[in-house]
Design a protein that fits this description.
single chain, 17 helices, globular
Length: about 400
């Protein structure tokens, strides 16, 4: 029975959130945030297992598009809720929460998840993580999306046409990636347990997991989001920070845990490759959908309202992504690069808090512009030294 324990536990933990929503039971905000967040976390594991198994039964090109989208559904659900509410209540802070959730998720992927994979693999094997040549396509399109994203803070708006460009880049990537030869799907753990079922039962179980997990996530997105903001006000914690870091942790944790498991099995290339795909997905589809969801909700094509602080957050996220692309241009990531990504991430995270407490004459608002400049300066130096590898990324159009 132990082999069924993870699946059973995930199903049980996913139930309380939607049950409270259906019965219209309203506990305190911290309790609701905990229950709904746990349900989303459990549903994320269910989605991840279902996505792995689904690749046994659908064409490779379709799997790349559908599975990649579904795997990050928890992140989309929370962010799109905030964006929709921003359109309904433009005078509120919902637009800021949408940007906070998006930037936090993207920076966590690179600053923590990428760094952890490369660092742990080095400690385990004393080797760098090396990606397969076809992964050059993902690095290339991440670079293109990041280059375009740099324009958003420069022009001071996130508009419908920005969304078209970013989503268009992802569609272009999917068309190229779909031409790759199919690879045999290797399953582990709970996914392997489901995948070993007879064909009809496997498909039925996969569809059931998809529907159940999606239902849990959609049911819990609103109470989790609202309770998270309310909890910040209750405890005197900046709700922007809670939305930026706590919400993405709940939705990103399953993918991060699975990646670490791959590293511990010695397959760091698969781990980093999945996290690279997740970053590309979020930096194109997630960001690209924000202005369109806002447009539908608000009933017009006006850009989502963002202030100078939000634009600094987007710039910092884009600058981090630029440096990461330069580091991965050679399709390898080592311990020094991992250390740099992690240290810079921690620095941009804690420096505003340090400046607020230190009273040394530097306002906390200057911390993120400083780290943006540091990321961009590091990218410039590294890009010069790795200019040949960066130019080689153009081969990603043909692989």
């Amino acid at each position: 029975m132990s082999k069924y324990l993870p699946l059973s536990l995930a199903l049980l933990l996913a139930l309380p959130g939607p049950i409270l929503r259906l019965l219209e039971i309203h506990p305190s905000a911290p309790v609701m945030a905990l229950v709904a967040g746990t349900a989303i976390l459990a549903a994320s594991f269910l989605l991840l297992w279902a996505c792995d198994v689904a690749q046994m039964d659908i064409p490779q090109s379709l799997a790349l598009a559908v599975v990649a989208f579904i795997a990050v559904l928890p992140e989309y659900a929370v962010d799109m809720y905030f964006t929709w509410m921003a359109g309904q209540h433009p005078e509120s802070s919902y637009a800021h929460y949408a940007i906070a959730n998006m930037t936090g998720a993207n920076r966590l992927l690179i600053g923590v998840a990428w760094a952890a994979v490369a660092g742990l693999f080095w400690l385990k094997t004393r080797n760098r993580v090396t990606l397969a040549p076809e992964r050059r396509t993902e690095v290339l399109f991440l670079g293109l999306a990041t280059a375009y994203a740099m324009l958003v803070p420069l022009k001071g708006s996130l508009t419908w046409y920005d969304g078209m460009v970013l989503v268009g880049l992802y569609v272009w990537y999917i068309r190229l990636a779909g031409k790759r030869p199919c690879e045999e799907c290797e399953l582990h753990g709970t996914a392997d347990l489901i995948g070993s079922l007879p064909k009809n039962r496997r498909r039925a179980a996969t569809i059931a997991l998809f529907l159940f997990a999606a239902g849990v996530i959609l049911a819990c997105a609103e109470p989790f989001s609202e309770s998270l903001v309310a909890s910040g006000k209750i405890f005197g914690v900046d709700e922007f920070l809670l939305v930026q870091w706590l919400a993405p942790i709940a939705s990103e944790a399953p993918e991060f845990i699975v990646a670490i498991m791959f590293v511990l099995r010695g397959d760091a290339a698969t781990a980093l490759g999945s996290l690279l795909s997740a970053k590309l997905n979020q930096w194109t589809l997630l960001v690209g959908m924000i202005p369109w969801v806002y447009a539908v909700s608000s009933g017009g094509l006006s850009p989502i309202p963002l202030d100078h602080f939000q634009m600094q957050e987007v710039l910092l996220t884009a600058a981090q992504s630029l440096l990461a692309v330069a580091m991965l241009a050679g399709l390898t990531l080592g311990p020094r690069a991992a250390a740099v990504l992690f240290v810079l991430f921690v620095g941009q995270l804690v420096s505003p808090l340090f400046l607020a407490e230190a009273h040394i004459g530097i306002p906390p608002s200057q911390a993120h512009p400083f780290f943006s400049a540091l990321y961009l300066a590091s990218f410039t130096v590294l890009a010069f030294h790795r200019r040949r590898e960066i130019l080689e990324l153009r081969r990603g159009f043909t692989i």
